[in-house]
Specification:
The chain is α/β, with parallel strands linked by helices and about 525 residues long. Helices cover about 30% and strands about 15% of the residues.
Length: about 525
């Protein structure tokens, strides 16, 4: 490009999205720089180092597919990869493709402002430096801004305070310590069994119980790995044809099409397989409430088998729709509550009053401990955008445009913010599909679009407002047909007080979404204005 900018493109974030975007852009000859707030690459897997942290997508599918050599040479050790192994994988990719030289670590982007006069973005870094680029690519991640509840008196607490999403890199030893964990979402379900093995006593504060399916994690069998690598392309093709972008065995018939005994046998089969594939037992579990109830009842019965105390089992067994909140994958979570050193405190009706110097109180009752772990999740989907001062045409703040909920065209762009691309933004499948799969699809589409513009001599692209409105309406209509939209989950911003309840990811399925993106590109990027 001939414009007087520091870079052709600036990428914000060096997780899996930022790494692949850098690789693709550099391969096409663009001048590109990645800015990363952390002291290392890896995004989610750099920050989330809590005990027991693992991916809930099987490792042989949770990886890049852009390089066959990379697929063949990397060796995963377990069915579900741990956080350290995934971070090692990210480092291997960065080193293999020489990415580090264009990544600036320990650098936060404080502001990104569109300059209409020159069709360029001006990004202000935390040290006060300003850089300019034709394109601004937000590779911020969907779960990268932690949610820290503002409990009264927390500053008075004399013990140690941790958040699962910002875990100390040196690790934490809970031996001989009384520990509290607040929250029972995915990070809590993974970390609680490990913390319980160390702590003198663990108290878990639960507002909402969660469904969890056993991982049945184990070392990968060499024969299985060889079979997959012999036809990795075949596995990837089958995955792309699935709604989630992940391949697993599933049934294409209703839970009502079989009798009760047959249905129980099928649930048992899928329980034995474990993991997220459980919801593939029948094809109507996320659209038919009565079908869903049969799956929920099965899992509740399994929880009661695992937990010795019936009253405790009742508290741990959700009475909600299974799959409405993201299904969790566990390794010994429910069995942990059979331990003598573990206590569950229900805060669904009597909420936490606040903290004291030695712990916290619930309904006036004191609970004392030496350390507290906030497993309270993230300001999902939009939090990473709203913490940056992003301004588009006429100085419009993105925060203001999205104050009633995020609005995008295809989850890739938002009207009024030209030349700003989002990787796995709101309105795309993102967290409802395999993240690396959706990342690669977005990056490839964006780079192809930039190449098209370069060939045509175009320097500006912006989503048309009418097409954005139509896509937002379609995203909402698709969500309304699914049971996933019926509870207060982080998909709807339910974890953040005061957040508008808008279902943020696109639930229509990965193949349908890819077809839409491809048709837009084939129609000379219909729905975008290029100049």
């Amino acid at each position: 490009m001939t414009s007087a900018t520091d870079f052709d493109a600036v990428v914000v974030g060096a997780g899996f999205a930022g790494l692949y975007m850098l690789h693709r852009l550099r391969g096409e000859g663009y001048r590109v720089r990645v800015y990363e707030a952390g002291a290392g690459i890896g995004g989610t897997w750099y920050w989330n180092r809590y005990p027991g942290a693992r991916c809930d997508v099987e490792s042989m599918q949770y990886s890049y597919q852009f390089s066959e050599e990379l697929q063949q040479e990397w060796e995963w050790s377990e069915k579900y990869a741990t956080q350290p192994e995934i971070l090692d994988y990210a480092e291997h990719v960065a080193e293999r493709f020489d990415l580090h030289r264009d990544i600036q670590l320990n650098t936060t982007v404080a502001a990104a402002v569109y300059d209409e006069g020159g069709d360029v973005w001006r990004l202000e870094l935390d040290g006060g430096d300003v850089v300019t680029a034709r394109y601004c690519v937000m590779a911020l991640g969907c779960l990268s801004t932690t949610n820290k509840p503002d409990f009264p008196g927390l500053e008075d607490f004399q013990g140690a305070v941790y958040h699962t999403g910002e875990w100390p890199h040196e690790g934490v030893d809970f031996t001989s310590r009384r520990v509290a964990v607040i929250g029972t979402g995915s990070s809590a379900i993974q970390s609680i069994p490990v913390i319980a093995e160390q702590a003198e006593h663990l108290t878990v504060f639960q507002r909402t119980p969660n469904f969890a399916i056993p991982a049945w994690n184990a070392p990968l069998e060499p024969d299985e790995v060889r079979a997959i690598k012999a036809d990795y392309a075949g596995l990837r093709a089958k995955a792309k044809a699935r709604q989630t972008g992940v391949y697993f065995l599933s049934n294409e018939f209703s839970a009502h099409s079989v009798n009760a005994a047959e249905r129980e046998g099928i649930y048992e089969e899928f329980w034995t397989r474990g993991g997220l594939s459980f919801l593939g037992a029948f094809d109507d579990l996320l659209v038919d409430e009565t079908a869903n109830a049969t799956a929920a009842a099965f899992v509740r019965a399994k929880i009661r088998e695992k937990v010795a105390n019936p009253a405790l089992a009742d508290l741990l067994a959700p009475q909600t729709i299974i799959g409405c909140k993201r299904l969790c994958v566990d390794s010994g979570y429910f069995e942990t509550f059979n331990r003598d050193n573990v206590t569950l405190v229900d805060v669904s009706e009597d909420a936490i009053d606040g903290f004291t110097a030695s712990g916290l109180t619930v309904a006036g009752a004191a609970h004392n401990f030496d350390a507290v772990v906030f497993a309270t999740g993230f300001d999902a989907m939009t939090g990473s955008f709203t913490r940056i001062d992003i301004r588009g045409r006429d100085g419009l703040p993105l925060n203001r445009k999205w104050e009633a909920g995020p609005r995008t065209y295809l989850g890739l762009c938002t009207a009024g913010f030209p030349n700003m691309f989002m990787i796995t933004g709101p309105g795309s499948p993102s967290v409802l599909a395999s993240m690396i799969q959706t990342i690669e699809q977005h990056v490839d589409w964006i780079v192809d679009c930039m190449g098209h513009m370069r060939d045509k001599g175009q320097v500006m692209i912006e989503a048309e407002l009418a097409d954005e409105d139509a896509w937002v309406e379609h995203v909402n209509e698709a969500a309304a047909k699914s049971l996933r939209s019926t509870c207060s989950s982080w998909y709807l911003g339910g974890s953040i007080p005061g957040r508008p309840r808008v279902f943020m990811p696109y639930i229509g399925g990965f193949p349908i979404y890819v077809e839409k993106c491809d048709s837009v590109a084939a129609a000379d990027y219909a729905g975008f204005r290029l100049a």
